[in-house]
Amino acid sequence: MLSKKTGGSETRNPGGTSSGRAIPPRIQRDVDRVADVVAVGFRGSMWQQLASELYDYAFKTVCSKLRRSDDLAEFVAKSATPLVLSDEDRTALHNNSDDRAEIALMAVSVAMETFPQLLKDGGYDPANHPGKDGMFKVLKSFFVGRCALVLPRVVVNWKQERTDRFLRQSKKHMEGWRLARALGGYTAGQAPADVVVLCDTLTGMINGLSPRNRAVWHMKIEGFTPGEIADELGIKVYDVNNALYTLRTRAKALRAKGELVVPPSVEAEWARRRELDTHGAKVAS
After folding, report:
1. Is a pLDDT exceeding 60 seen at residue 91?
2. What is the pLDDT, as a whole number, of residue 175?
């Protein structure tokens, strides 16, 4: 150990608290390591090793918390930024390890930016601030707490970037005539009036979806497969199929109530495609 300092002040009672309570050896080792990296100015192999250990531990912990919304809410409860998640956000965090890793990496990086200064200022002081219920907190847990404070801000940025990505994709494939082509093989300006009405109704339904599901449907109309859509949007195939299923179910319910009318020409085109699919399947077998 290079010094007996924690931050900018000397440790007056090494191995114990100001009240004489003994500090566990594991905690004292963390206090000593902090004093050492402060003494060397957070440079060299000593700091690199400590920072690497903190990164690895915090990254795994944050990834785990992101997977369960109940754990996540408790984890970030002390943050000044409220955590607001939609059902779609929760599903994405639960199912998509890439999203969890992206958020965790960013949260750890943001927390680490100010952590050296916090240590230099004596922020880690278990002797005088033992933590919740008087339990001494190891340095790794202390750093994870810092990550929890910044995590909601990182999630806000992730949500915005994700929404922007979906909106960009949906705008690339939002021309109305593409739906007429997908429904009945019509080219731009050639669809009859009843098909145009159907397209307007379906377009309104699609535009009312979330940015992610809107992007899914615009790409489906364009002819992309579920796997291709998932790859392009950075989501799971399950999420793509769920978005397709949800709107189809709504459309079927409207048809059953007579609120959505499919023109005979479109019905005929669908029947022709089903026949081609059946014939192709027989040939393939």
Report:
1. yes
2. 60
